[in-house]
Automatic annotation (TrEMBL):
The keyword Acyltransferase applies. InterPro entries: Acyl_CoA_acyltransferase (IPR016181), GNAT_dom (IPR000182). This is Ribosomal protein S18 acetylase RimI-like enzyme. Residues 190-321 form the N-acetyltransferase domain. Pfam families: Acetyltransf_1. Keywords: Acyltransferase, Transferase. PROSITE patterns: GNAT. It comes from the Bacteria.
Amino acid sequence: MVVTWSDQYTGSVIGLWNTVAVRDGYKEMTEASFSGIFTGNRYFDPENTFVLVEEGEVKGFACGCTGGDLPLGDHAGYITCIVLADEVCTDDNYKMMLEHLEGRFQALGKKQADVLFFNPMMLPWYIPDTPRHEHNNAPGVPTGSRLHSFLLGQGYVERAQECAMYLNLSSFSIPQEIRGKEEKANAEGYTVELFDQGKHHGVTDMLQGFDNPLWQKEIAQSTEDGVPVVVAAHHGKVVGFAGPVIRQESGRGYFAGIGVHPEHEGHGLGSILFFKLCEAFQQIGTDYMSLYTGSTNPAIRIYEKAGFKTVRTFSIMRREF
């Protein structure tokens, strides 16, 4: 029997997650983290959340996410997860849980189901072969997982692969090639350093050059509040950024992104910003960095040059109704 969410299932679903989902590399859950990711999330909807119950025991959990203010949210529903206990892990049961999610999306007028990084219900996972270093979000379905194979069989199209990349910062150093690029940029009137309100101006103008509301909000707020942000400036006017530079409790370096205003591309600023970002994290005692990028993104070469390695891949998937 599949039922919609009730808080009475919280403990059992956490137990299911910690038995099954952790084998796919996801971080175990506590009541606090479950609330933070699911039930306490402002996008949580009990009608988008389903529990498989057999003989009074929880055997499955599926959660979806909708919101008109989300990217694609006016016509797409997001699949967050489908988890089944080993004894009921069959294609028929996967299909039953998926059909409940898709049916709910369609009832809300959605035209497609997506699994992608815009989902605000972020699932943390452990980076393989590390001392429990973790990344704060899975940007899709783990490639090669049972769910990945199942969705492919149900007509979901793999639209892209995201490479999860990792760097232990203990041995990081900026190579001479990047130092040379920085010297050349300096000669052209550019500097790359931490933002200083007394030296730099034009953050708002720079951010308006990007079609990214997250950057416009977070970077503007960080520079205003004194949170470190690495910036590229041309004679003091900010033309690019990397950051913010925040060491998370886990020891991971958090940053929202890197951008160079289109009018100032072609000077090597993107590479310099990224390496300076890594250096800034190292200087505040950050243990490691992790990020994900599209497998066809040319920036992957910059990350690899800095020492990042691809540790997992995730699939971005979609099915149109």
